[in-house]
Amino acid sequence: MARIRSSSSSSKFRYCNPSYYLKRPKRLALLLILFVSASSFVWDRQTLVREHEFEVSKLNDEVRRLQNMLEEFTNRVPANVPIEMQRREKVKEAMIHAWSAYEKYAWGNDELLPQTQSGENSFGGLGATIIDSLDTLLIMGLDEQFQKAREWVANTLDFNKTYDASVFETTIRVVGGLLSTYDLSGDNIFLEKARDIADRLLPAWDTPSGIPYNIIDLAHGNAHNPGWTGGDSILADSGTEQLEFIALSQRTGDPKYQEKVEKAIVALNKTFPADGLVPIYVNPNDGTAYGTITFGAMVYCSFYEYLLKAWIQGNKTSSVKPYRDMWETSMKGLVSLIRRSSPSSFAYICEKTRETLTDKMDELACFAPGMLALGSSGYGKVEAKKILSLAEELAWTCYNFYQSTHTKLSGENYLFNPGRDMSVGTTWNILRPETVESLFYLWRLTGNVTYQEWGWNIFQAFEKNCRIESGYVGLTDVNLALKDNKMQTFFLAETLKYLYLLFSPPTVIPLDEWVFNTEAHPLRIVNRNDNIAGSERQHKPTVGLQGRKTGRFGGN
C-alpha cells in the first residue's frame, strides 16, 4: 500500500520537475510562451499606471500654472502696456480694494474701521465714504460700484438728523461731492441732495458780520461755535465754502447760496492785513482775527486755496479779480515765512505767532506747492517763474517728509533745526493727500515726469505699509509702522484720485475746464453770471465714457 501512495504522490508533482519538460520540448515551449505573455501583461499594466500618474501630475502642474497666470493677469497689466497705464491700473485696483472692503464691512456708515471690520459714524451717519467716493468711481470708470452708490443716495440718504455737523467738513465732502457727481453725470438726484444739505447749513451764516458759525444742527438749524475756541470761528471753517455754494447758485439759479458765502469774504476783506496772512481765530460778530498764522492745521489748504480757486471758478473775469488780488497779497506773506534748512537747504513754511517764527511745518501745508504752481500763470513772466520755482522747492521738501522715515510715509508735521535739516514731530500718518495733490498739479503744469516717479514711490509705500485684507489703515508711527484702525474718506476722495490722475493723460479732468475743491471734487468752470436768476439750471454730463482701463475723460 505504501508504494502505491508514493507513486501517486510523485505523479502529482511531476509537472514541477524540470526534467519532465526537458523530455517534452513542445510543452516547454508552451510554458515559456505563457510565462512571457503573463509577464508582459503585468508589465504593461504597471507602465500604464505610471504613465497615468505622470499625466495626472502634468495636468495638475498645468492647472497651477494657469491659476498663477490668471492671478498675475488680474493683478498686473502686461509688460508691453505703457508704464503710466500700468500704474494707473494699480491705483484703480487699490480703489477697488478700498471700496470693496467698505462695501463689505461698513456700508452706509461714514467710515470703515478695517482692523475690526466694522463701521463708524463720525459725520452723523451721512454715508460720508459713499458721497466722498462718488466722483472717484465715475472718473475711474467703476460703473457697477457707482450705480450701487447712486441707489443708496437716491433711496437711503437722509439729512434730517439731530446732529451737530461741521459746516466746513459737510460742505467740502457732502455738498462738494454731490455737486461734482452732478457735473460729471448730469443726474439731477445729486443736485437735489446737494440743495437739501446746503439749505440745512445756511443758517450758520446768520451772524452780525456774515462770518459763519462752524457747527450746526442739521435737523433744527441751531448754529454755534465749539467751546474750545472761546466762541470764535476758525478761518478754514469760515472761508472754505465759496466754491461749493457759488457752484450751487450757478446750477440752481438761486442766488442765496452765493450771497451768503461771499458776504463772509467781504467781511474778511474789511480787516485783511497788509501781508495777507490771516490768523486762525475770527470773531463772527465783527470779523476781527487773532492767533497763530499757519498754512497747516486749522487753515491749511482752504482759505488761501479758495481765494485762488474762486478766481479760477469765475473764469478769471473782472468780477472775481478781488479774489485774485487777496490771494497775491497772501502769497507775499507766504514768501516772508519761507526759510531753508541746513545743511540741505530744504525750503519750508514757518508758523508765525505775532512776530516770532517757529521752524515747524505740517504735512497739511504741502498743498501749497500745488496751489503756487496753479496760481503762477496769473503773474507776469518773471514773477511767474519765481513762484513756480518756489513751488518746486517746497514739493521737494514735502517729498522728503516721506523719504526721511523708515516706512517712506510722512509724519503729521516736521521740525527744522540748524545742522540737522528736518525731524519728524508728530509721528502719525492718516493717509493724507496733500503731497500727491501738489505732485499732480506740478506734473500737469510742467510736464516733468519726476513728479510721477515721486508719486509712484509714495503709492508703493501706502501699499506696503497701509494695505490690509479689509481695506487701508493709517499709521500711528511712521518709523515703527504701527497701524491704526481707520480708513479716512479722503483716502478714496483725494489720495487715490490724485494718484490716478497723476498717471492719466491731461485730457482727464483738464484744468482749464474744471476746478477741484479742497476735497478733490472737480467742479465744472462756467462763465460767471452775477445775475444768477437767469442762469441755466440744466446741463448735460460733460464726461464721456471711454475704455474701462482709462476711466472717463473730460473735454469735448
UniProtKB/TrEMBL annotation:
Spans traversing the lipid bilayer: none
A single GO CC term for this protein reads: endoplasmic reticulum
Which keywords does this chain's UniProt record carry? Calcium, Coiled coil, Disulfide bond, Glycoprotein, Glycosidase, Golgi apparatus, Hydrolase, Magnesium, Manganese, Membrane, Metal-binding, Signal-anchor, Transmembrane, Transmembrane helix
So what EC number does this one have?
3.2.1.-
According to its record, how does it sit in the membrane?
A: Single-pass type II membrane protein; Single-pass membrane protein
Fetch the InterPro entries from UniProt: 6hp_glycosidase-like_sf, Glyco_hydro_47, Glycosyl_Hydrolase_47, Seven-hairpin_glycosidases
This protein's pathway? Protein modification; protein glycosylation
The cofactor named in the record is: Ca(2+); Mn(2+); Mg(2+)
Listed under GO biological process in this entry are: carbohydrate metabolic process; N-glycan processing
Q: Where, in this chain's numbering, is Ca(2+) bound? A: T518
* Root EC class: hydrolase
Under Gene Ontology molecular function, one entry of this record is:
mannosyl-oligosaccharide 1,2-alpha-mannosidase activity
Chain spans, region Disordered = 535-556
**Location of the protein in the cell:** Endomembrane system; Golgi apparatus membrane
* Disulfide bonds, paired cysteine numbers: C366-C398
Q: Where is this protein primarily located? A: membrane
Q: Which residues form a coiled coil?
A: 49-76
The organism's place on the tree of life at top rank: Eukaryota
Q: In UniProt terms, what function does this protein have?
A: Class I alpha-mannosidase essential for early N-glycan processing. Progressively trims alpha-1,2-linked mannose residues. Produces Man(5)GlcNAc(2) from Man(8)GlcNAc(2), but only Man(6)GlcNAc(2) from Man(9)GlcNAc(2). Has difficulty acting on the terminal mannose of the b-branch. Involved in root development and cell wall biosynthesis.
Which family does the entry's similarity section mention?
Belongs to the glycosyl hydrolase 47 family.
Name of the protein in its database record: alpha-1,2-Mannosidase
